[in-house]
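Progress note, project year one: complex with nicotinamide-adenine-dinucleotide.
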Amino acid sequence: MRVAVIGCGFIGRRHAEAIRQSPYAELVATCDIDITRAEAIAGASARAYADYVALLQKEKPDVVTIATPDHLHVEPTLQALRAGCHVFCEKPLAMTLEEARLMAGTAAECGRFLAVDYNRRFSFGYGKAHQLVLEGRIGDVTHAMFRVTDGIPPFVKGRGAYAFLFSMLTHHIDLVRWFCGEIVSVYALQSRPDEEGKFLDTALSFEFASGAIGSIVGGWREGQTRTIEALEVGGTQGAVLIEDVQKRVRLHGLSPDSVEEFQPDYFWGIQTEFYHSLDTHVLSFLERTHKGEPPLVSGWDGVRGLEIVAGAIESHRLGCRVRL
Ligand SMILES: NC(=O)c1ccc[n+]([C@@H]2O[C@H](COP(=O)([O-])OP(=O)(O)OC[C@H]3O[C@@H](n4cnc5c(N)ncnc54)[C@H](O)[C@@H]3O)[C@@H](O)[C@H]2O)c1
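Model obtained:
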């Protein structure tokens, strides 16, 4: 498949590296409004563009990956879908629910695949823990509890009071859905507005369709250089704990001595890097698209994430729990 990358910053570079590893794909073009960035990633084997419309017209790629800043995913995705491309889009799909629904709806109308990059599902830690839960090792899931601390990405400046929900917690909302099933209500608290009114700390409480409950508490810190996060998923037969995405997974049974520990393969090292999960997701998308199989994390998962974000914002504004 002929593949192009739109947006060649930090993450676009990573998309390109993953595409180059795929036996099903050839990186044919890159695009960035800063042409030097597109050229740096294109190398000798792909063509660089400053305008994605020109890229779509001239290259006619089969697949496009989108790694522009959060508020600039919609137009390139819609144009690429309408040009007949399958699209792998960075999270969040969009900054409004209406736009996200339009994106997923357009993919369906055009008969193309749309994936959203909730790459944490492809990390060692969350992947292993999810497998243990599916195997019934903790019984029926009863609760989930997340804590998250991260630095503030520069592109969220001016992106509104709830940028932390859109840009960061969308990953963690997706994960609690993945572990616990559909979210049916949300209650949100926000604190510490910065000088532009952006809330830096958030506490979310959820109720799931199964009757399970959950929470995410997190915040952005100026100068924090990497994410620190941990998830505990509890069940009727035990609990599973994931530290730092993939550092360690602990499975606790009912008795104090029934503890199993799982770690990524430090000998070969590959799984220990956070962005390996992103590479794995891109590779999975390319392979499944080549085989005509829908993506594991679809545009509709991106839409649902934004429905929950919208519910959280409404909850904060109204000061009460919101049913979804
Ligand atoms: N999945 C993850 O773990 C993860 C991690 C970090 C960032 N992201 C997401 O990836 C996206 C990109 O983040 P980043 O850190 O690479 O940002 P970045 O600022 O490093 O890169 C964005 C690039 O897009 C380019 N760009 C802007 N407008 C464009 C346009 N109209 N056409 C073509 N190029 C354009 C910019 O010039 C820049 O080079 C964001 O949506 C972000 O939330 C995802």
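The chain has two domains: 2-116, 120-271+300-323.
The pocket of nicotinamide-adenine-dinucleotide is lined by residues 6-12, 31-34, 37, 52, 67-70, 72, 90-91, 117, 119, 155, 167, 278 (CB under 6 Å).
No further modelling is planned for this target in the current period.
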